[in-house]
Amino acid sequence: MQQTKTLKELAEYLGGTVQGDEACRVNGLAPLESAAGDKITFLANPKYASKVAETGAGAVLMSPGGEAYGRNVIEVGNPYLAFAKLLTLFYVQPHAPRGVMPEACIGIGVLLGEDISIYPGAIVGDHVTLGDRCVIHSGAVIYAGVTIGDDTIVHANAVIRERCRIGNRCVIQPGAVIGSDGFGYAPDGSSYYPIPQIGIVVLEDDVEIGANTCIDRAALEVTLIKRGTKVDNLVQIAHNCQIGEDTMLCSQVGISGSARVGNHVTLTGQVGVAGHLTIGDNVMVGAKSGVPSSLEPNAGYSGIPALPHKQWLKSMAVVANLPDLKKSVTALEKKIAELESKLAKE
Amino acid sequence: MQQTKTLKELAEYLGGTVQGDEACRVNGLAPLESAAGDKITFLANPKYASKVAETGAGAVLMSPGGEAYGRNVIEVGNPYLAFAKLLTLFYVQPHAPRGVMPEACIGIGVLLGEDISIYPGAIVGDHVTLGDRCVIHSGAVIYAGVTIGDDTIVHANAVIRERCRIGNRCVIQPGAVIGSDGFGYAPDGSSYYPIPQIGIVVLEDDVEIGANTCIDRAALEVTLIKRGTKVDNLVQIAHNCQIGEDTMLCSQVGISGSARVGNHVTLTGQVGVAGHLTIGDNVMVGAKSGVPSSLEPNAGYSGIPALPHKQWLKSMAVVANLPDLKKSVTALEKKIAELESKLAKE
Amino acid sequence: MQQTKTLKELAEYLGGTVQGDEACRVNGLAPLESAAGDKITFLANPKYASKVAETGAGAVLMSPGGEAYGRNVIEVGNPYLAFAKLLTLFYVQPHAPRGVMPEACIGIGVLLGEDISIYPGAIVGDHVTLGDRCVIHSGAVIYAGVTIGDDTIVHANAVIRERCRIGNRCVIQPGAVIGSDGFGYAPDGSSYYPIPQIGIVVLEDDVEIGANTCIDRAALEVTLIKRGTKVDNLVQIAHNCQIGEDTMLCSQVGISGSARVGNHVTLTGQVGVAGHLTIGDNVMVGAKSGVPSSLEPNAGYSGIPALPHKQWLKSMAVVANLPDLKKSVTALEKKIAELESKLAKE
User: Fold this and answer.
1) What's the pTM?
2) Least C-beta-crowded within 10 Å: which of B144, C18, C139, C210?
3) Which residues of B touch A319 (CB under 8 A)?
4) ipTM here
């Protein structure tokens, strides 16, 4: 963690341009307010531009054309992304492969890629396939017949049930459950008969799944999470759902069975989505909203039941003052009664 | 999975009646739209009756008296249930007992039934009793003194804490926690003193518990889930609750302490229920609702706080247009002021 | 569990005063209604004072000056707290240390305190420090570099990720995840680049964490839960949050990134809190509320979005009757039109 880099090296790594001393060396990142001279900082929000004048950082990542206040600067198109990339460069060490460690448990017919790590207490079932450089942490349980791509990390005590397929570069946080049985029962008059859930879950490449999130296997075919989608902690994705690419599902979101969610959608915290509906691409749904029916693409929605976001804001402003509105109506009723009575007398 | 059955055999299995070729053989199920001639399909929703004319399936499960369009038909009272039963028949193989597998860990004084399976990395504590044909998957932890009935499946990394009792034919999905300490604290003026939770959880027969669902042990006595009730993923059931028979708790429902939920109740996704109240039999609560007080049986409710469902629907229709209602009131106020002023002048 | 105590002994233990027979012996606790003569019961809620006359209990814990109805009484300032303390005294046995049990897995460079218990299948990573009398249950996974204080209990299948720090006398229920990666991604135009989450989680002393609850590690520094705070099951605490002392977070609460929650706050079930805001000390938020912006201390709030609690109650009373309000407005419009028409004719 004590490597140092010149600004020239960093600019090349990021595809940016140095304004100032290319030979200046830094060894890490720090916030604008607290950075010392051996650190690089970043300005992502123009609101804080004046802080650049006072930072003690050795250099600042900022958008082209920003005011440098005499500082060394690396100009990059997306300073926040550049910050994230330098965090990786300075602080994330590649995982040194540890092989199959003692007290890991490997079934029969397992295919292991190169440079894998399987920690003590991890359980890899029969006929599982693991890609190169996979890391399976302690207590993770991979049921029989699962396939996992390259560079995927499965954290402690996560569970992947039988035959599910996980892509490349996926990250599965601790305690997540992939492939639990869907919640499907046929009423038989008085009780419920469990419908066998014989499908699977497929996670495409670059999907990340949060801690203790649950994704149910399909009844017959596939519950599908497409490339690049990120799922936060404690999210529920029911059987037969299809979630698009580069979509964000924030914490405690719940999606009912057979729903289809588009690409580049954001469902914020605790949103609930009914089953058998479609959410279009580029939709944003506000926190705690309930979505009872399909949503048109390229728009924002909020509320229970969800309305177009601006309409909901206006309605909620009225809700906060409903008792006043009611009083106004009562006052009007009284005035009209008076008017009527007055006119009747005339 | 390659067994084939004649329609006669299937009709006998289901208690139905063949219309058409009894000797026709099928080897599995498929949807109306995509079934080939070696598959049987089903018509549960009369809305899709016309699709029967076009299906390529070898036979169709449908209600007595439906239009067969010349197809082979098995008439059954409940085609959806029949479909579920055939799924089981064709696709679910009985679990071949594997005994106590290497690297499973069994405590002292454990009573094991016949034909059980305990997978590697499963932990069975001291003085546990397991019924016949139980399956305990890898990483499941059964604390001391737990009793589990026959034919119950405990999936990977589920936890059943000390002394809890699980019935016959229960299914516990991965990561579920049965018997965690109830959330009970006595304020001591400035801080909170933890109240020992010395009760247990009892699951009766045929109860199914979803992935990462949590059921807290009672403070003193029993948190009880009665026969046949199905609980989805990520549900919270607090200490001292009593949940009736054949009730459905959908994903992310939360039930506070000492609540009583009746038989044949359905709480849909993300519903919250306050403590120390009673929900009557046959109640249905709409998604995301909040239930602050007891609910009468045989009715539907929605909203935060929950109202009778139809009343809530009507209120929400007005909420969506509240800004217009407010404008109407403002317009009325103006008109009345004008009228008053006009009358005053007269 | 069959120890008996005299009322004199119990009064000394609790700092209370006996009214009646100091030599009376009891061997446990029971509710007012069902207690037999060898049990002590308690009266916490004055509403039930008359039940004291009928209890079969050998003695009653009550506030000074309460009506004893001729019963033996121990007078204590806080009978509910006294009840909790006697539950501990009668029913909770100190955990007999079992050491590192067979099939537990201990990394290199681990520092173990005295009288610890590490159960079979628990995984303690490299360079972990465990305080005296810690109990690590089966399947719990402690990643490398974690520090845990004295008398802390980590239940089965809980996960504590790398470098997190846990205080003294903490309790972590089964399946909880401490230190999962925060949900931080930098948009790169079309997809999301994962921002390394290099911070940690710190739990101070006497913090309790519910089953399957998730607390994300900070992006750069610390996600902090302060002394004495209790967190229920299935709660989400996002990266960089700071939760105050003696705060209660009930089940299924979700707190977004970088939020600050004060001391002695209560967030009841399923409350959601947006990121980057501050909730003042002694705030109470009603069940299922959504908090979009900072809340002033010493007050109650409810609703989505949250309003002062009483304002919300009044608004919800109107919401329940909105269709009537709308009808009133329509009726007024009609009457005014009539009046206007009448006046026009005159």
Assistant:
1) 0.97
2) B144
3) 319, 322
4) 0.96
